């Protein structure tokens, strides 16, 4: 297993380049190449990313390499379906933590699913290779 931890902007080395080839989607692809993942029949890989790494561009690159991905995503990323993004960042009285909206890939691509669900704030997800059936769990178990 290979992990790369994002330490925040203050920990990044200053660069004259407008796009840092050592961070974001480039870092994820670089790590996959370092692991020497080669496509094989009946062998699937999954990459889990947080909102700083996840982008529609990265997801397309991973799908091209036959690697599934799932992760939170910033709602303003290029290519992310804006009808899924929650404009109101404060939960309304009628909204529960189980409320969600999803896009089943009709606007992005058939293998991608975009989901927003409510915690204290709206949380956007982008995933590939996953079931589109919604599962729920209870926060507290009563015994």
Average of the residue pLDDT scores = 71
Number of E-state strands:
5
Order of helices and strands: HEHEEEE
Unreliable spans: 10-19
Gyration radius from CA atoms, angstroms: 17 Å
State the secondary-structure class.
alpha+beta
- Helical amount: 10-25%
Q: Helical stretch count? A: 2
* Neighbour order of strands in the largest sheet: 1-2-5-4-3
Shape: globular
* Amino- and carboxy-terminal Cα gap: 37 Å
Main β-sheet description = 5 strands, mixed
Q: Per DSSP, what share of the residues sits in E-state strands of 2 or more residues?
A: 15-25%
Domain PiggyBac transposable element-derived protein: 2-131
InterPro entries: PGBD
Organism: Phytophthora aleatoria
Protein name: PiggyBac transposable element-derived protein domain-containing protein
What topology does this entry show?
Layout: H1 25-35, E1 45-49, H2 56-64, E2 67-72, E3 100-103, E4 112-118, E5 122-128
Helix pairs in contact: 1-2
